[in-house]
Write a structure and sequence with these properties.
Elements lengths: L8 E8 L21 H12 L6 E8 L7 H54 L6 H17 L2 H24 L3 E6 L5 E2 L1
Parallel strand pairs: 1-2, 2-3
Antiparallel strand pairs: 3-4
Helix pairs in contact: 2-3, 2-4
């Protein structure tokens, strides 16, 4: 696997008037650990999702007005990286919960399927009148048992991999380089 420093860098650009526009105004945390604004987070994640998966990522922030405290600019990269790392950890916990729900659903589904097959066979041992109706009932019970397997199969075949892909993307974003460009001419790398 190539060294990340050797890969081409892909840039996500954001334009804001004040640096605080990037962050959630309601979050009472100190600046360096505040959450990103939901719109800023959505924009950055959606844009980064479209970029090549092996490229290093950079966030270029076009800033119209410098903050009153220029030391804040030094914390921007740390705050953004911390936000995406926390999001990755939260999404990892969601994936863990999904697999736990899948295992529980699988146990319930297998128990119900086993019971359905057992009832169907028990009904089949009675070869009395209404054989055709009994076969329909048997098959209906078995089909019901297989339907009980639908949710665990959905989880283990389809639901987990988009969550895992999001975790990989958030981990990439937690390592992105952040550059702040003030006004039209000045450039400051943080």
């Amino acid at each position: 696997m190539p060294n990340p420093e050797d890969l081409p860098t892909q840039c996500v650009e954001v334009h804001v008037t004040h640096i605080d526009q990037l962050f959630n105004a309601i979050d009472p945390s100190p600046f360096h650990s505040r959450d990103l604004d939901a719109d800023a987070d959505d924009y950055i994640v959606k844009y980064a999702k479209e970029l090549p998966k092996n490229a290093a990522l950079e966030l270029l922030i076009h800033l119209d007005q410098p903050p009153g405290n220029l030391a804040k600019l030094g914390l921007v990269e740390q705050a953004i990286r911390a936000h995406f790392e926390a999001s990755a950890q939260s999404t990892q916990a969601q994936l863990k919960d999904l697999f736990k729900r899948g295992r529980t659903s699988l146990l319930i589904g297998l128990a119900f399927l086993s019971a359905s097959i057992g009832v169907s066979q028990w009904l089949g041992s009675d070869s009395g009148a209404g054989l055709h109706a009994m076969q329909i009932l048997q098959q209906s019970i078995v089909i019901g048992g297989w339907v009980a397997m639908w949710r665990p199969m959905e989880i283990f075949l389809y639901d987990w991999w988009p969550v895992a892909a999001r975790i990989r993307l958030l981990r990439r974003l937690s390592r992105l380089k952040v550059t702040v460009r003030m006004g039209n001419a000045d450039q400051k790398t943080v």
